[in-house]
Amino acid sequence: MSVTRLLVPLLGAGVVATSVVAVSAGGQGGGPPTGTMTLNVVTKDANGTFVDVPPKSKKFSSDGDQFVGRGTVSGDAQGTVAYEFTYDGDNAFLRGAVALPNGKLFFEEFDRTGAKLTRGAIVGGTGSYAGARGDFEDRTVKTTKSSTTARVTITFVG
Question: What distance in Å separates the CA atoms of residue 50 and residue 68, rounded to the nearest whole number?
């Protein structure tokens, strides 16, 4: 599993240019966002830190080890993403936040090693995204030795 495998764009961790799907997520007056938002997320290994907790492992990661990183977000909204992987065997639990101009979105995802497509949950937000709930599709579109680009499609439920 590459430590740059994100999500987040909230998901979507890793990003390339993407087309906008239908967005009505930001700037709604009184309620949580609805509709769909597509984000491109780019994460780089150099923008993160690996934390090796006991027991020490000679392989890449062992249960409980973590990778904490950050990346950039483009697409339907511009911003940044901060995330943390906690490893469990060959899989990882991903949680993080996407900071956008009108607020933040919080997400969680169970990431299976080598999966090009995973799904996660939007578990909250602030600002224009207050009360946000929904799910997202995190699709890896490009992986190099040092970075990952993902397209994250968020579907908000009202």
Answer: 7
Report whether 156 contacts 122 (CB < 8 A). yes
With CA atoms as reference, report the closest residue to 118 among 76, 85, 78.
85
CA 32 to chain CA mean position, Å: 20
The two tokens of residue 119 are: 């799904």
User: 56: which DSSP letter?
Assistant: P
Q: What is the pLDDT of residues 4-40, one digit of tens each?
A: 443 333 333 333 222 223 333 444 456 789 999 999 9
- Give me Rg for the CA atoms of the chain: 15
pTM value? 0.76
Encoded amino acid at 105, one letter? L
Kindly tell me the number of DSSP H helices and DSSP E strands found in the chain. 0, 9
Query: Quick check: 132 and 26 in contact, CB under 8 A?
Result: no
Contact between 138 and 150 (Cβ < 8 Å):
yes
d(CA 57, CA 33) in angstroms, rounded, equals 43
